Description:
Layout: H1 4-10, E1 28-31, E2 34-37, E3 43-44, E4 47-48, H2 60-82, E5 93-99, H3 107-122, E6 129-135, H4 146-150, H5 155-165, E7 175-184, E8 191-197, E9 208-209, E10 212-214, E11 226-227, H6 231-238, H7 242-260, E12 265-266, H8 279-289, H9 295-302, E13 305-307, E14 311-318, E15 327-335, E16 349-356, H10 357-365, H11 373-382, H12 388-395, E17 402-403, E18 407-408, E19 414-415, H13 422-430
Helix pairs in contact: 2-3, 6-7, 7-8, 10-11
Amino acid sequence: MSGPEERLAALGLTLPEVVPPLAAYVPAARSGNLVFTAGQLPARDGQMLATGRLGAEVSEEEGYACARQCALNALAAVAAEVGGLSAVKRVVKAVVFVASTPEFTAQPKVANGASELLGEVFGEAGKHARSAVGVASLLSGGRGHGHRSQTHRPPQLVATAREYAAGVRTPAEPRNAATVALTRRGGRGPEVYLLRRHAQMAFAAGMYVFPGGVVDERDDDAALAWAGPGASAWAAQLGVAEPLARALVAAAVRETFEESGVLLAGPDPTSVVPDTTGTGWEADRQALESRDLSLTELLARRGLVLRADLLGAWSGWLTPDFEPRRYRTWFFVAELPQGQVTRDVSGESDSVTWLPAAEAVRAADAGELLMLPPTYLTCLELAGFADPEAALAAAASRRVEMFMPELVDGAEPTLSHPPWLEGLIAGHREAP
């Protein structure tokens, strides 16, 4: 009677090398007699079988093949963990995430690519419970094509974008937001703190992002205890009126605390809170997140001042007019204060990681993680600095210009880049 390895060979398949983990996880983990695998990409010999979404640029047949490859990659991780597939008694559950358009409904057929391979390899023991989940996005392409793929638009969205450009549709009103590229020193240049948004999120699902969010109406509070450059200085650098400048800086500090547990504040203008990990701090963070507490109230209660001098203005991005949810987002940079640590506390993410900025770019180019163009390009810029101090020094002289990516028509329509970054992008594409 043949075992799983023999059945696999009869199918003309061999287990690939296990892909090394990108961040703080392992390819497979064993608990008792159960083995759980990390998520898998449809990569074979270092190349993605397909990129895009079902219902758009990827066919159902291609999706089936991708699911089958993902299952094969998962089997490799299991075999490495338990010493071979013969140790597997049965497959219990498979979860298949399918990047697809809202109109696509054949996710179960695509997921059959994984399920049928498991049945072919394990026979009756391969029959399992399963969930097939459609998500907005899962992966991007590789270097040379990777950044283009990150901005590549499926046909349906291209048609919609053209309608907005022609004035047939009215764009949604953008909301003001702030996000912070939190950095720390690393052996290979600045490291950045990234959160992966839940696949169920309505905006940027599955994407790696920096801490950030929309401006709260209470962020513009003249009573907020403040140290460092004032609202007028920030207004000049961010290109906005003073009330909005004050609100953006406050939102940047508040959202960083809400989503990472890091607080850019101290008891005086020259010091920073050394530790924010206690139960009292967590209670305050949750109250801030639920809007039961404002930033002004939190700092007053703790006897702290906001350290505006720990932030640097970086860039401004306006969501394209054809997107249903739009944000006018000001990007900031900051260095992790000495003594403080980040914590996985955001309810909008399912994992967090620290990565060298250069490694984050490489991983996005290779399709190992997903980033929207503003996050990707910020990482690409930060990778060019020796350390966080150098990045903050460069931020001091920046004047933010809000940029909205627009559709660039052609054989493969893409989104435009800020003209001041074209040289950086071209140099990256040409790098070996």
